[in-house]
């Protein structure tokens, strides 16, 4: 797939913020100098205009996985105020919390956005709306339980002969977004996708109002090209856009539809961030937790997400979304070797999944989590069954495909395992998952002796998730097998620092053997031998 993500240009007062060229200039073209971190701060503020941007959020975006003092934020804020000049008063300080950029901002497509808002309010007579509903979160008009309600408008075509292509893609996008939302959102949250191709807007749509509008165009010649844009209806701001060449690719829309729910979650998270803690409801906390899981994975990110899920569960013990969220984080910690209480975490995850299945057994996420847990418990046949169910329910679930690959590796089927690991990368799309999927495939290639292919994939993954131990440990093993002691040793130290439990050869061997003995010979010939060369201690 060839994908081009268009980066917007924002205009406010006499200034133009061009994210594509990473410049701030006046309308007359004069450049306004900003240090890289200060520019990143201005971008963050402008993209969240009218919303509170907390100091914690600034720290996470500008300095992920790096410790800096509050003085660094203060200096960047001063830089931004100087750059804003006469309109610096639009950057408001919310004492002890953060900042709000209050200036009216228009993207260059403002006129188009206004036209699209008009289209969204106009429905031809004699047409009835078709609605796909996904159990998940909630963004209702006046407060930030506001679950993203997306109005999907029909794709436009430039040629009448391509109308059928547009109708078909609209139908497929609606179905795939519905399936993808089931993976991103806990079952008790709620997202609705409305396709108006078949009819007028539902009667209650006027009162509820679609918070977001998704529309675009398709061109069928010489190749199928799909253009999509997602607008926030109230302001007309484009929060996500994508242009993709879809010709001849298997699962060609899978990556595309994964990106859109991720954009929604981030937007809703910013809105919820403006609320005081005492105002947060269970659905708000679930949204915050899921938004955290869209960030690059690390022990710290999973800890924050678990805390939000636990808070939601405490407020609503019947929340199936909270159950699944807690189970998902616990199993992630177990799978990464980050759990400090393995038996307790396994037992709790088991109980939560059992309760979740009683509520709804037709959710791919539940079976994928259970499949991973069963493998970690060494129950490979049960793991395989759960993944087969998960893939039947959600064929484009990238992480389920990747984890199924690991179950097959532990079952002694490396060729089939690699096929599923590759499928995970092919179907993976949004940033939080792709580095992990790439890391899994790289480790799989390492196990079958493809050192160069493994190293290329693992270095790519480690650059995206620098605080995750998995790609670092595998890199250490790969360079150890190449007898590059310096590179292997450096990667090993970083990997051990990022892992809370697996810090010795014996600990790794026990953890691997617990899941399945079939993989032990190939593991010891490759990864263990490389780690030994890299300097990992036996005990």
Structural notes for this entry:
This protein is of the alpha+beta class. Among the domains are: 2-101, Arc Repressor Mutant, subunit A (Orthogonal Bundle); 110-252, Rossmann fold, CATH 3.40.50; 434-539, Tetratricopeptide repeat domain (Serine Threonine Protein Phosphatase 5, Tetratricopeptide repeat), CATH 1.25.40. Helices cover 53% and strands 12% of the residues. The strands form 3 sheets. Strands 1, 8, 9, 10, 11, 12, 13 and 14 form an 8-stranded mixed beta sheet that branches.
In short:
The protein has 539 residues and is α+β, with helices and mostly antiparallel strands.
Summarize the SSE layout with pairings:
Layout: E1 2-4, E2 9-12, E3 15-18, E4 23-26, H1 36-47, E5 52-54, H2 55-62, H3 70-84, E6 91-94, E7 98-101, H4 110-120, E8 130-135, E9 150-152, E10 156-157, H5 163-184, E11 190-195, H6 205-208, E12 212-219, E13 225-232, E14 238-245, H7 254-272, H8 282-292, H9 299-315, H10 320-335, H11 342-359, H12 364-376, H13 380-393, H14 398-410, H15 414-427, H16 434-447, H17 451-464, H18 469-481, H19 485-498, H20 505-515, H21 520-534
Parallel strand pairs: 9-11, 9-12, 10-12
Antiparallel strand pairs: 1-14, 2-3, 3-4, 5-7, 6-7, 8-11, 12-13, 13-14
What distinguishing features does this structure have?
539 residues; alpha+beta; Arc Repressor Mutant, subunit A; Rossmann fold; Serine Threonine Protein Phosphatase 5, Tetratricopeptide repeat; 3-stranded antiparallel beta sheet; 14 strands; 53% helix
